[in-house]
Design a protein that fits this description.
Blueprint (H helix, E strand, L loop, with lengths): L9 E5 L2 H13 L7 E5 L2 H11 L6 H4 L1 H6 L5 H10 L5 H12 L3 E5 L3
Antiparallel strand pairs: 1-3, 2-3
Length: 114
């Protein structure tokens, strides 16, 4: 990965919110901290619900940086998602792949250890 902040980022695409919660719990049981686990869905409200249920995080200003977070107001949802994914150390190509999976209704679980 190309980010120094999240050099050991891990990502898994799951089919639904239930699987996302299960994956978050698995990651927590394997040693990841709550602050290091993120969930992302194509729909922002769905992301909120899954993050709340799983006790995981959403990707926000802390991860993206102020400029990207503000710029996301003017970006398409696909561009927003790719920016969020790359902010956690993934390449643009990886972000495009994951964004296409989110377009299909899947959920992305990301864990990064700093």
């Amino acid at each position: 990965m190309n980010s120094t902040n999240h050099a050991k980022s891990y990502a898994k695409v799951v089919n639904n919110g239930i699987q996302a919660v299960e994956e978050v719990n698995r990651l927590r049981n394997s040693g990841y901290l709550r602050d290091d686990i993120y969930v992302l869905a194509h729909d922002g409200d769905r992301t909120d619900r899954i993050a709340d249920t799983a006790s995981a995080n959403e990707i926000g200003i802390k991860e993206e940086g102020m400029f990207d977070a503000l710029a996301n107001v003017f970006r398409s949802r696909g561009d927003q998602l790719r920016t969020k994914i790359t902010s956690l150390g993934f390449t643009e190509a990886e972000a495009q792949f994951y964004e296409r999976e989110l377009d299909l209704g899947k959920v992305l679980v990301i864990a990064g250890k700093e």
